[in-house]
Structure formats: structure tokens, C-alpha cells
Amino acid sequence: MRAIVKHSPGPGLEMVDVPIPTPGPGEVRIQVKATSICGTDLHIRSWDPWAAEHVITPLIVGHEMCGIVEAHGEGETLPALGSLVSVESHVVCGVCAWCRTAKGHLCPETQILGVHRNGVYAEYVCVPAENAWVDPPDMPLSIASLQESFGNAVHTASVPDVSGRKVLVTGCGPVGVMAIAAVKALGARSVYATDVSDFRLDMAARIGADVIVNVSRDSPREMIAKETDGEGVDVLLEMSGAPTALADGLSLLKYGGEAALLGLFSSPVAFDFDDNLIFKGATLHGIAGRRLWDTWYQMRAMLRSGAVDLSPVVTHRFALDDYEAAFDLMASGECGKVVMFPDPDDADGPLTTP
Fold first, then answer.
1. Given 7, 35, 40, 228, which residue is catalytic?
2. Known active-site residue 105
């Protein structure tokens, strides 16, 4: 089968032929129908310090996907053959103190698809059966493929109390935009969004942001202070991993406010604990993955009820064979979510050709 592989440390990826995997006990084999690109995958392709520290090579990369269950390993009968499933990429031990107290997303033995074990940028992948989340059979493949990414957004948006509050989202990549949709669904009073890309800020406005600020042209501290009558915001969702965005966001956070941080910083960040945290009486939440499985049920409720429509987030579709062009576009910032299809005939919208 075809698979996108990181053979050894260093920049770049390549597509090669590898054997079709055999599901082990407790696993299912899934035929990949659609797979989306995440910021983590960009870190791995460029081989930045984060990737160098965390990624184990050689391996098949990628972790966001949907597909059809086509084989069971020993002892498994579910999900049923033919089921459309999305996949939770965090494979946890199930027996540690965190897993046993409903905090499996913090399991210290976690293995992540496409980081620590073979991932999903391939025609087939084997995962633990419990990691396969059954989708409605009529769910668009592009939406099904990005649910894990949406889960990051929902987790970030739901940890602080956003109902009736003013929320600032720094970073309007796909997860940031989905976080805007989530906080609107959760009853935020108003949402402010910052980024350096007009394309992504326009997408943020379309999905519900009340005020957008391009920080390459305007000062977010001045504009958002003015929009909030000098009060600042009740909640900060930091989605960019940019040190300047973190500094701006925390400076705008009200005394007693809450901040949820999802963005990954590629190197250590200087932080003013005195003014931004201690004297401000602020609460900072680090967000790791999705709460297993609370966040998945929250996502299902938002999507089924129509409270969130993710279709505007998917802006480009590519054949998997054109992964290099898909990655280049994702890295440019001139896109929303980019979805790739191993079989171009499965695409649920027009394909972009390089």
C-alpha cells in the first residue's frame, strides 16, 4: 500500500510502498477514506525542535482520519465491518491512575498515531478497536476526518467558562476557527480573533467572530481594549503557539480571567508570571488532546444539533498522491482545513490539482 513516511530525523517526507498491516488482538484495520493535515504534521515535516524531541522514526505519519472498518483482530467484533469511523489518535494504557480516573487524555504512557506509532497517511491503518469512533454513515468524509481536530477546539473552548463572556481567540488556523464556532455554540457573549492571515481572519468572521484583528497591521491590545471599553476579555484561548500572541492575549485578559492554551511553542517562551498571572489572579489551563471520551460526545452533540457547521472550515481537498502540494498550502496559511483522499473518487468536493 502507499504510505507517507518519515524515514529518519530531518526535514521532509516521502511516499513509499509498505505492507498492508495486520490487526493484532484488540485491534481493527481501517481502510482510510479521508485524512486531514494538522499543524503537528507540519512540525514533523519541517523537523523543528518539538518534532526532534518527540517523534520516533521510521514511521508512517498523520493522525486525523476517517475510514471503513474492514478487518477485526483476535477477540474483536466491534465496530462492525463496514462501519464508517473516525479515530482517536491517542492510544492510552487504560490501567494507570489517570486512565482509571477519567483523565485518560493525560495518560503518561500515551502513544500518538503518526508520532510514536504508525499513522494514517496511508491506504490502511490498524488501531485499537476502542479508538474507533462510529460515525453516521452519511457524514461527509471531509467532516468525519477532522473530528479529532475539532475535539481539540471543543476541549479548549469548554474548559474555561465561556457562557455570557467575552472571549479572545489568538490564532485562526483551522483549530482556532473551530474553537470560535464552539464558543459561540456554548453561549459566548462576544468573540475576538487575531491572526496574521487575512484569509484565515475572513474564515473566522464567517464562522462567527465578532471582531477580527490582523496583528501584522494593527495592535490587538489597542483595538480589543477599545472594543471592550478598556475592560479586556474574560477568557483567552491561545491557539497559535506564537509568543507574541500569548503576550498580547494575557495582557488583554481581565483580572480573575481564565486562559486555555493549546498552541505548541517550538521553543521555550519567556513569561512574566508577576503581571500576567500572580497579580492578575488569572487561571491558566494547559490543554492536551481531547478528554476521553467526554469531548467526543460534546462534538457529536454540537454537530448533530446543528449548533456547529464545520463545512466552511474545509477549504481544499487533494489526492493523497499530491501530499507535497497539500502540505505547502497548509504551511502557507492561505487555507482552512486541507483534506487528502487516498482514492480521489472518494472526494466529497472538487479536488485541487498542483
1. 40
2. no
CA distance 179 to 172: 9
Q: Torsion-angle region of residue 94: left (phi > 0), alpha (psi -120 to 50) or beta?
A: left
**Beta strands 337-341 and 27-36, pairing class:** antiparallel
pLDDT-derived band of residue 280, with 50, 70 and 90 as boundaries? very high
Whether the pLDDT of residue 313 is over 80: the answer is yes
Buried b (16+ CB within 10 A) or exposed e, 182-215: bbbbbebebbbbbbbbeebbebbbebbbbbbbbb
CATH of the domain at 227: 3.40.50.720
Annotated catalytic residue, options 43, 72, 90, 155: 43
* 159 lies in the same domain as 257: yes
Domain range for 63? 2-146+310-346
Tell whether 217 and 158 lie within a shared domain. yes
Average pLDDT, the chain: 96
Question: β-strand 64-72 against 27-36: which pairing, if any?
Answer: antiparallel
pLDDT digits (tens, 9 = 90+) for 51-71: 998 898 999 999 999 999 999
**142 and 167 inside one domain:** no
Do 13 and 133 belong together in one domain?
Answer: yes
Q: Is the pTM value of this prediction over 0.85?
A: yes
Q: Is residue 7 annotated as part of the catalytic site, yes or no?
A: no
C-alpha distances out from residue 4 to 1, 16, 44, 45, 335, Å: 10, 6, 12, 11, 21
